[in-house]
Amino acid sequence: MVCHRCVLAVENILQNESIPFQKVVFGEIHLIEELSPVQRDRLIKELNKVGFELIDNYTGGLIEKIKQLVIKRARNEVDEKERKLKLSNYLSDKVNHEYTYLSSLFSSVEGRTIENYFIEQRIEKAKELLIYGQLTLSQIAFDLEYSSVAHLSTQFKKITGLTPSYFKEIGMAKRKSLDKV
What we know:
Elements lengths: L3 H13 L4 E5 L2 E4 L5 H13 L8 H17 L5 H5 L2 H9 L3 H12 L3 H19 L4 H7 L5 H12 L3 H7 L11
Antiparallel strand pairs: 1-2
């Protein structure tokens, strides 16, 4: 779950299945009581129908937490203090594990590095900002904390195969939803 609509979809499933819960936040369901095996099976089935899966093991939960944190950081949805930290320090502080462990675990499960995932998320944000058309490429590079427009353009082309200006011309066709990244 990486967006508000995802949270609403999960809340709706829980309500339809009469599963009492305290709250649903990005990637987490806080239940009032433990699920019965029947409730768990129904929940898994309903989540799968909308493209979600139930992650109830430590490793899966940790990977999901890393993804959420990377998305927030890539989109600059963190406070100024956290923005100044290196990505590795930011993640280590948030999940209380050494970055080498997190990096190795993430790569083995996801088949890509945390850094690549971070870059992909930044590029998705750049795509969004390009499509909105309210900022220049220089402003987008600054907002996403790239060292230069050239650096953003190079990463953009590497990920998408297109220059930012050409992408802007063709618009939404190449944009992925966050849950597909």
